[in-house]
């Protein structure tokens, strides 16, 4: 099993997420991970970004997992929270097209979990 620390930021670093949005995102991410036979070990975030710690088997291409996590979460979160849908004349992307993915094989998993847990959620 491989471990990866993922960070996704919102389009234009917009401050979009409150605690309710982050709770919804966590559930969506867990479901997507289950579909890929991976595990979301830790999740946290703030208004404009999220951190995920995932464990995945070598048969899973990390780029495919990330694309699914971002695509599915964007669609489902906007259905659950219509206030996140932009007017028709604006691009309706939730996430920036880029992302951070770091292998955490060399770092103790407990350290990475602690780091992600310490990322403050809005009240």
What descriptive keywords fit this protein?
alpha+beta, globular, about 120 residues, 3 helices, Alpha-Beta Plaits
Distance between the amino and carboxyl termini: 35 Å
- Net shape: globular
- Radius of gyration based on Cα positions: 14 Å
Strand line-up across the major sheet: 2-3-1-4
Task: Give helix and strand order, one letter per element, not per position.
Answer: EHEEHEH
CATH class: Alpha Beta
**CATH topology label:** Alpha-Beta Plaits
Overall SS class: alpha+beta
Strand content: 15-25%
Share of helix, binned: 25-40%
Number of domains: 1
Could you report the average pLDDT, rounded to the nearest whole number?
Answer: 90
Structure summary, number of beta strands: 4
CATH architecture classification name: 2-Layer Sandwich
Major sheet size, sense and barrel closure: 4 strands, antiparallel
* CATH homology superfamily name: Transposase IS200-like
Low-confidence stretches: none
Number of helices: 3
GO biological process, one term: DNA transposition
Domain Transposase IS200-like: 2-119
InterPro entries: Transposase_17, Transposase_17_sf
GO molecular function: DNA binding; transposase activity
